[in-house]
Amino acid sequence: MRRSVVGLVIAGVLGIAAFAEGASICKEVASYFDSRYKDLRDIFSIKLSLNSPYSARAYVRLMRWAQVGFGESWNTKFGTDKCGSAICGEGRAEYALLIPVSCSITRKIFVQNDEAQKRNLFFGDVGKDGVLGPESMKEYYDGNRPWLSSSVALDLPILPGAEATIYWGEAVDFVLGWIPIKGLRVPPPFYKHKVSGSDIPSPEAMDWHGQESLENY
To answer: Which residues, in sequence order, are bridge partners of residue 93?
Structure first.
């Protein structure tokens, strides 16, 4: 009888240990695949907008020194940028012909998720006192976009608008994220720099999901 009780106790302890180990492994696996999913989302930015009667902007960009853009837009915009999502009011003026000429922006965030807020992906502090008029615009240098990014945008008066971007560096990072070799992924990790007094993401930095300890927010 005593041996049976001892055996049951040992079996119970081993079972609990095995369950805890299995739960830990499952958690690690889930975290790994969640990081790969976020790496996939990092490749794209997709934004839709409801335009004012004063919006007229078209923009096509293959890379920094191959782009054409002109016009202004004033709209309510909602969508995703990498792993961030938000709804915001935005004003943007943009002019480029092969090389960037000028770009300015003002924006007020209405709603955003934690990822967007932590990284300031939507530049929510752009503008003065939440005003979206021309007087609150700040210059937004084209150098604050990654060299290897491609975009297309169209905003027309009253009609819905759309903007889409592909970050090619993040696409490479997504592929390398599946290869379990330490130090292989694309440097440098995420960090911010100041533009017109605002801390915004550095354009050449990557979002290293699963290795957040390397990142500077």
So the answer is: 72, 104
| Rounded CA separation 176/73 (Å) | 37
Digit-by-digit pLDDT tens for the chain (217 residues) are 555 655 555 555 445 545 455 667 788 889 999 999 999 999 999 999 999 999 999 999 999 889 999 999 999 999 999 999 999 999 999 999 988 888 999 999 999 999 999 999 998 877 666 678 888 888 888 888 898 899 999 999 999 999 999 999 999 999 988 888 877 788 888 999 988 778 899 998 988 888 888 888 8
Distance of alpha carbon 61 from alpha carbon 102, whole angstroms? 14
- Residue 104: φ, ψ to 5°: -140, 155
Give the H or E element holding residue 10: helix 2-41
Cβ contacts of residue 105 below 8 Å, gap of 6+?
Answer: 90, 91, 92, 93, 123, 126, 137, 138, 140
- Domain range annotation of the chain: 42-214
Burial class (CB in 10 A: 0-12, 13-18, 19+), 17: exposed
CA distances from 100 to 59, 121, 153, 202 (A): 11, 21, 15, 18
**HEC string for 142-193:** HHHCCCCEEEEEEECCCCEEEEEEEEHHHHHHHHHCCCCCCCCCCCCECCEE
pTM: 0.85
Q: What span, in angstroms and rounded, lies between the C-alpha atoms of 135 and 91? A: 11
